[in-house]
């Protein structure tokens, strides 16, 4: 900060010097093309002394501009004060300019007040207007930054709320399955308790994690499927077709489990004959495509896909919307050969090494 402060003053001096040089060239060219014989050295002294005096007055004018800003409540009063201050600044600048001519430059004669007054008034209001404009721009950018930060915080809070909604739903269904097996098949119930313990451990470890490599998502899903295959035995067959290049892709945490749970609940559970759930992952250009399908009855004629949405699917849709906005798609429809198909499409993003170790 100290280095910036020392750099600020030379920059301030150079800026006013450039203004003085600009008006020097303007005055010189005006005299030259009017047929006069201009003296560049004299014009340079006059212009630089004039604008260096404004450089001395500018900090006070800027401070007054910020103290008496263009606020709606005190607008008339502040404008009145600035009007008086502009006249005072013009008189002060005129006096200092004449003193500089006499005692610094050693030039006889004085500048007429009538000649310098109007340009000084205009200069004062340019400084005031520039200060107000700059401060407004800074506040606008800060407001944009605060809005963006609040949007991110809100999205993170909403995602966490959706996940908290999903976990009890999954836990409730699993405990119901264990309860049904306790008396009928104690060993199967014991295996389900062990797998549920593993899943809960992984879930606790994933608190606060928004996305993981697809490989970790598949690992979690396999543990979940062990529970479901214990529950349904030979009635449930699972196929996975995971393209190798997708295993390192960043994937929203617990995005597949509710899709598979929905497929089992609606496509496998209502049937007495064996059913199949197929999980696919592939990359299509810049997007990752995840698909979960079953060979169940699908949607009845006249029903729309949202009719099959439960807590899991609605949470999945909301999560993707908040994470990727318009760059995502959730498609639900009956399969061409029967059953129901859910397809998720969102940007393909390679996971970092830190994500893989999370």
Can you describe what's shown?
The structure is a single chain. With 358 residues, the protein is an alpha+beta fold. It has two domains: 2-145, no CATH class; 194-357, 2-Layer Sandwich (Heat Shock Protein 90), CATH 3.30.565.10. It has nine helices and seven strands. A hairpin with a 5-residue loop joins strand 6 and strand 7. Helix 3 packs across helix 4 and helix 4 (113-182) packs antiparallel against helix 5 (186-205). The two termini are 37 Å apart. The model has no long low-confidence stretch (mean pLDDT 82).
Which strand order do you get reading across the main beta sheet? 2-4-5-7-6
What distance lies between the first and last C-alpha atoms, to the nearest angstrom? 37 Å
Total of helices: 9
CATH architecture of the largest domain: 2-Layer Sandwich
Please, how many domains?
2
Structural class: alpha+beta
Q: Low-confidence parts, pLDDT < 50 over ≥5 residues? A: none
In total, the number of strands is: 7
Look up the CATH topology of the largest domain: Heat Shock Protein 90
Instruction: Tell me the β content.
Output: 5-15%
Tell me the radius of gyration.
37 Å
By CATH, the superfamily of the largest domain comes out as Histidine kinase-like ATPase, C-terminal domain
């Amino acid at each position: 900060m100290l280095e910036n402060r020392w750099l600020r003053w030379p920059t301030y001096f150079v800026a006013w010097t450039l203004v003085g040089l600009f008006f020097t060239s303007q005055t010189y060219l005006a005299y030259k093309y009017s047929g006069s014989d201009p003296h560049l050295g004299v014009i340079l002294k006059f212009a630089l002394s004039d604008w260096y005096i404004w450089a001395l007055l500018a900090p006070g004018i800027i401070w007054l501009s910020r103290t008496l800003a263009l606020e709606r409540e005190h607008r008339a009063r502040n404008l009145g004060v600035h009007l008086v201050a502009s006249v005072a600044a013009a008189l002060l600048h005129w006096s200092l300019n004449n003193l500089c001519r006499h005692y610094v430059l050693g030039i006889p004669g004085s500048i007429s007040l009538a000649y310098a007054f109007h340009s000084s008034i205009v200069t004062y209001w340019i400084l005031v207007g520039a200060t107000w404009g700059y401060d407004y721009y800074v506040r606008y950018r800060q407001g944009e930054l605060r809005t963006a930060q609040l949007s991110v915080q809100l999205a993170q809070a909403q995602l966490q709320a959706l996940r908290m909604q999903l976990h009890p739903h999954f836990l409730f269904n699993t405990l119901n399955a264990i309860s049904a097996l306790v008396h009928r098949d104690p060993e199967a119930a014991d295996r389900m308790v062990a797998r549920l313990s593993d899943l809960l451990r992984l879930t606790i470890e994933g608190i606060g994690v928004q996305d993981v490599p697809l490989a970790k998502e598949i690992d979690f899903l396999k543990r979940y499927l062990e529970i479901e295959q214990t529950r349904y035995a030979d009635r449930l067959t699972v196929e996975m077709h995971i393209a190798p290049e997708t295993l390192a892709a960043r994937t929203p945490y617990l995005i597949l489990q509710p899709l598979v749970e929905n497929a089992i609940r609606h496509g496998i559970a209502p049937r007495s004959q064996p059913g199949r759930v197929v999980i696919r992952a592939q990359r299509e250009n810049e997007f990752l495509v995840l698909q979960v399908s079953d060979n169940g009855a699908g949607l009845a004629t006249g029903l729309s896909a949202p009719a099959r949405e439960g807590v899991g699917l609605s949470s999945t849709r909301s999560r993707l919307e908040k994470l990727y906005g318009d760059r995502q798609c959730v498609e639900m429809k009956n399969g061409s050969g029967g059953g129901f198909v859910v397809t998720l499409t969102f940007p393909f993003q390679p996971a970092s090494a830190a994500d893989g170790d999370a």
